[in-house]
Write a structure and sequence with these properties.
Helix content is 51%, strand content 9%. It is of the alpha/beta class. The chain folds into three domains: 20-47 and 57-113, no CATH class; 128-150 and 350-508; 158-331, no CATH class. Strands 1, 4, 5, 6, 7 and 8 form a six-stranded mixed β-sheet that branches. The chain has a two-stranded antiparallel ribbon with strand order 2-3. Strand 7 (418-421), helix 14 (428-432) and strand 8 (437-440) form a beta-alpha-beta unit. The chain is extended.
């Protein structure tokens, strides 16, 4: 038995040369990342970087790229944190070869090459295909909300921007008056002072101007959409008041109550005509055919129409009572704070307020297409809270990725079989768009129980609409089993992706998209690394 502890000899000199390759085991992720960075084409990252001439030599872009990829593989996005880890973490010290770049260099490299990360994502996907991954038998598409590098409290409406414009004009007039007074006295007060525009390193003025432009653009777009909806609603109202049939639900808006009342009047008129015709036959001594019509008060269509009118009257009364409330009071159920209906964020003008299951966040709508073996094959970033318009572009992106991989490998696994999507993508345009086979849920999970209790068999009816045909496919045994793969395919991939990128570090739509491509590349490299070790 030992009589003392093991000696701690921190002042012991190393008698043999240190080999950095022995610091980590041979199957460590660092070596895989370095091998990958050595084989990918980094011409996009080298563009704009100069060698030779005066000044210190720059850092190797392959080293900086490997450092970023490895950092994102472990969910480290802060350039300052990466710099600290290069001093304290063995893996990061190996990556930078103990020549630690400062955080500004790391952040500048990521910002200057935001467009090149999309090409990196495609190259990593090709590596996955060559490794036998990225099986396209089923491709699942889904969206998730990712927080932006901005506070939700930095949203402002039109009144705030108008006040800022007035204050800027007042400040400019005051500065002009001071300059004129100095010129009259032939004085040079503060002549060597740095202009205020160069002192503001955060570029807050530029961000406010960009936010104001975004707000004006959104107001114009919403105004145009409101005009189109108003014209369509007026045409519907005119048809309904003329007694003509109108298809579809009554649109919300200023004409909702009038059309609901016109619809009720038309239903009463039609049913009263049936009662009058039967009464006329009986009065003439003839025997009417068929069962007698139900009384007016018991007719189901009239009962339903009266309910619609009652609901429209209540909504109109509530809107009238809310007319005297402070601005934004009508949006308390939709917005996390008392805001106008149209706002823009002054920190990141491209970001939007996104509703989630846990509340609201300031961020973007990220779209992800995932293969059957959970390889991310396409990503996109949008500002809309709705997913419907994203399905066709994501399906086309998956088709292009599959075509490139199949051309490279000639592997049948790189041909798209079926595209799966949840009810957020259920729209007629998505059901009928040209492309591969697809299964799109038409309702929430609780609505899919009909597929179990009322199963379908064979092909859909010959004259079925696109929605009816999709409903038939979802009720078949094969369709039900195929759609079950959606959740097990894309949901874990999104969860793992958000451990890498739970919040954007860059600001702006294009910058955030570049960071999403970088995170997707790190995600796929981790999948390839684990598959290779397995």
């Amino acid at each position: 038995m030992a009589k003392s502890y093991r000696p701690v000899l921190r002042d012991q000199l190393m008698l043999l040369p240190v080999d950095i390759r022995e610091w980590l085991p041979g199957d460590h992720l660092v070596w895989f990342v370095l091998d990958t960075v050595d084989v990918v084409d980094i011409s996009e990252f080298e563009r704009g970087r100069y060698r030779g001439g005066a000044g210190a030599a720059g850092y190797d872009p392959r080293m900086l790229l490997g450092l970023l990829i490895y950092a994102y593989c472990h969910g480290v996005r802060s350039s300052r944190q990466v710099e600290r880890l290069c001093h304290t973490d063995v893996a990061f010290r190996v990556l930078c070869a103990q020549d630690v770049p400062d955080h500004a260099t790391i952040a500048r490299f990521r910002a200057q090459h935001q467009g090149a990360f999309a090409d990196l994502f495609g190259q990593v996907l090709m590596i996955a295909g060559r490794a036998g991954l990225a099986r396209f038998g089923t491709v699942a598409i889904d969206g998730t909300k990712i927080a932006a590098n901005a506070s939700i409290d930095a949203n402002r409406g039109r009144a705030w921007f108008a006040e800022q414009a007035r204050s800027v004009i007042t400040e400019a007039e005051r500065a002009d008056a001071i300059d004129n007074a100095c010129a009259d006295r032939d004085e040079n007060l503060d002549g060597d002072r740095i202009p205020p525009g160069l002192v503001d390193r955060s570029h807050r003025t530029e961000r406010i101007r960009e936010a104001a432009r975004q707000l004006a653009k959104r107001h114009r777009r919403l105004g145009e959409a409101d005009h189109v909806r108003d014209v369509a609603a007026r045409e519907r109202l005119a048809r309904s008041q003329a007694g003509l049939p109108v298809v579809g639900c009554i649109p919300k808006g200023p004409h909702h109550l009038a059309e609901a009342r016109a619809h009720l009047a038309r239903e009463i008129h039609d049913h009263q005509a049936k009662l009058d015709r039967r009464a006329a036959l009986i009065a003439s001594g003839k025997k009417p055919m068929g069962a007698p019509p139900v009384p007016m008060e018991q007719h189901s269509r009239i009962i339903r129409a009266r309910r619609v009118v009652a609901a429209a009257e209540q909504a109109a009364q509530a809107q009238t009572e809310a007319a005297g409330d402070p601005p934004g009071a009508a949006f308390k159920h939709r917005k996390p704070k008392n805001l106008p209906s149209v706002v823009v964020n002054t920190t990141d003008p491209d970001s939007r307020i996104m509703p989630t299951r846990k509340g609201f966040l300031q961020g973007y709508n990220a779209q992800v297409a995932v293969s059957a073996d959970q390889i991310i094959i396409a990503v996109a970033l949008g500002q809309s809270t709705n997913d419907q318009a994203c399905f066709v572009p994501m399906m086309h992106a998956a088709q292009q990725a599959a075509a490139h991989l199949h051309e490279l490998t000639n592997n049948d696994d790189h041909l798209i079989g079926t595209v799966l999507a949840d009810a957020g993508y259920a729209a007629a345009a998505n059901l009928t768009a040209p492309g591969p086979d697809r299964l799109i849920a038409l309702g929430k999970g609780r609505d899919q129980s009909k597929a179990v209790h009322e199963p379908a068999h064979g092909l859909p009816p010959p004259h079925a609409t696109a929605r009816q045909a999709m409903q038939h496919h979802l009720r078949t045994d094969s369709g039900r089993a195929l759609y079950k793969r959606r959740g097990a395919t894309v949901e874990p991939a999104i969860g793992n992706l958000k451990t890498i990128l739970g919040r954007f570090s860059r600001r702006g739509l294009n910058a955030a998209l570049g960071e999403l491509h970088l995170a997707g590349s790190a995600f796929n490299l981790m999948k390839i690394y684990r598959a290779a070790n397995t």
